């Protein structure tokens, strides 16, 4: 296994595995933190906020898209499925790109793809071009989160990384808030093409911000640290792509991180990306304003949980698995109560409750990235993060597709005829990926414990 350059023990948030850390070295550079670090992170995270606005834009436009393109639930879900599929498929390639070329270049490319995809979507009037534009958008989206995490790893001490990762997710939820509050209203008042064109043009300002002001690493910390004892100026030997991926996958902490991300993220993701608005309007009889208010509550709950989990994780790594298992259990129980409610119309207090519970899903999924970070050396951190980050989006894709197929099967008349009962049975599909993911977490948790023993 590749050996990571040693860092002072005080800077580690958790005990790292013996196989991943070399002996202490006084000369090893330590990320400085401070104002410069927060500035670099802020510029990088602006791209992630923009990506989340693009990613979640369809969540408030699902019914409009169904009407504009004349499609049913299965075809509508294809938009988000393809976007998420491209996102998931790009995670490992993006991780390799970040490891080799640096996060700044990858972020700039991501902004270009996001803006191009959204602009094409704004002017699409038929299903096929709109679908292709969402694929381009998903590719750009894939380049943002891992890049920001890599910037944080270079600028902040290791003990601060779990908190900064949660802050990154929290900032992204700010983009989601823009979608649910601003975009939903603009779509209703201004129409399809002006609204999505305006979002696309935001990329111009963000591209300029990154190009002019982003410094991806402190001067004292090289983008890829060389092996211990390497003379200054010696080129760093990079492992082959296949070997890089294999080394990451063989690490049990990487696989555990993937399944944590898979299991905790998809319920809130599927609800916020596509099916939340149709469920609240068509199954629960809410107005667009009321449904938008609950989706806004989902975003605020996500931000609150991100801050709370970040504080807990930065104090001790022992909270990681309890957080994950608690979120999984409360999500499963919450949906069981909602779906079992007689008539398929749960009271408002219960709907608010499941929204608050799903607000914990995204922050809990970032625990998986912390497992990958602490068990992989720096030179393959981007690749490991990419593998983990695939998990939640694969789970989201499976859930989006399953719900769409079941809705069409239970409501042959198509969009506008989905009953509360149809939504109730379709949403039961969530328990399939939830059960598979939980079983894999419990299995791999023991392997990671043995490896650390």
In terms of topology, how is this protein built?
Blueprint: H1 34-56, H2 62-69, H3 73-101, H4 103-123, H5 127-142, H6 145-155, H7 161-190, H8 192-213, H9 241-250, H10 252-283, H11 288-315, H12 320-340, H13 348-358, H14 361-375, H15 381-410, H16 420-427, H17 431-452
What's the gist of this structure?
The protein has 453 residues and is an all-alpha fold. The protein is built from 17 helices and no strands. Helix content is 74%, strand content 0%.
Radius of gyration: 22 Å
Q: What is the H-and-E element order?
A: HHHHHHHHHHHHHHHHH
CATH superfamily: MFS general substrate transporter like domains
User: What's the N-to-C terminus distance?
Assistant: 18 Å
Oligomer: single chain
Q: Any idea what the shape is?
A: globular
Query: Overall pLDDT, averaged?
Result: 83
Strand content: under 5%
Q: What's the β-strand tally?
A: 0
Low-confidence stretches: 1-28, 224-236
Q: How helix-rich are the residues, as a percent range?
A: over 70%
> Strand pairing plus helix content: what structural class?
mainly alpha
Explain what the structure shows.
- There is one protein chain.
- The protein is mainly alpha-helical.
- It has a single domain, classed as MFS general substrate transporter like domains (Growth Hormone, Chain: A, Up-down Bundle), CATH 1.20.1250.
- The protein is built from 17 helices and no strands.
- α1 runs parallel beside α7, α3 runs parallel beside α5 and α12 runs antiparallel to α13.
- The longest helix has 32 residues.
- It starts with 33 loop residues before the first helix and ends with a helix.
- The N terminus is likely disordered.
């Amino acid at each position: 296994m590749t050996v990571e350059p040693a860092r002072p023990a005080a800077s580690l948030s958790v005990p790292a595995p013996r196989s991943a850390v070399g002996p202490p070295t006084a000369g090893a550079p330590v990320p400085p933190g401070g104002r410069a670090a927060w500035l670099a992170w802020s510029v990088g995270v602006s791209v992630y906020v923009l990506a989340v606005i693009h990613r979640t834009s369809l969540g408030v436009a699902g019914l409009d898209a169904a009407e504009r393109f004349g499609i049913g639930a299965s075809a509508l879900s294809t938009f988000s499925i393809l976007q998420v599929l491209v996102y998931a498929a790009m995670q490992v390639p993006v991780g390799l790109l970040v490891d080799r070329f640096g996060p700044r270049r990858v972020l700039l490319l991501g902004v270009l793809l996001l803006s191009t995809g959204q602009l094409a979507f704004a002017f699409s009037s038929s299903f096929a071009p709109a679908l292709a534009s969402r694929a381009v958008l998903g590719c750009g989206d894939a380049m943002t989160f891992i890049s920001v995490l890599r910037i944080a790893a270079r600028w902040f001490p290791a003990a601060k990384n779990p908190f900064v990762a949660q802050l990154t997710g929290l900032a992204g939820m700010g983009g989601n808030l823009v979608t649910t509050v601003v975009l939903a209203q603009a779509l209703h008042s201004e129409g399809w093409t002006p609204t999505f064109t305006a979002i696309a043009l935001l990329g111009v300002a963000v591209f300029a911000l990154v190009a002019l002001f982003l410094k991806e690493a402190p001067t004292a910390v090289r983008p890829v640290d060389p092996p211990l004892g390497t003379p200054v100026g010696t080129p760093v030997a990079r492992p082959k792509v296949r070997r890089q991926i294999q080394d990451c996958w063989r690490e049990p902490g990487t696989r555990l991180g993937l399944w944590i991300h898979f299991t905790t993220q998809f319920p809130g993701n599927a609800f916020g990306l596509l099916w939340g608005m149709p469920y609240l309007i068509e199954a629960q009889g809410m107005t667009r304003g009321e449904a938008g208010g609950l989706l806004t509550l989902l975003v605020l709950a996500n931000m609150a949980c991100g801050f709370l989990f970040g504080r807990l994780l930065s104090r001790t790594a022992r909270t990681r698995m309890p957080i994950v298992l608690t979120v999984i259990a409360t999500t499963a129980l919450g949906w069981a109560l909602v779906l079992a409610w007689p008539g398929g119309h749960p009271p408002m207090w219960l709907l608010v409750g499941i929204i608050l519970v799903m607000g914990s899903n995204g922050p809990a999924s970032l625990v998986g990235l912390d497992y990958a970070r602490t068990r992989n050396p720096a030179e393959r951190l981007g690749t490991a993060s990419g593998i983990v980050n695939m998990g939640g989006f694969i789970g989201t894709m499976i859930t989006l597709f399953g719900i769409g197929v079941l809705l069409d099967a239970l409501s042959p008349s198509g969009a506008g005829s989905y009953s509360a009962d149809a939504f109730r049975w379709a949403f039961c599909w969530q328990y399939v990926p939830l059960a598979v993911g939980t079983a894999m977490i419990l299995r791999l948790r023991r392997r990671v414990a043995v490896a650390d023993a």
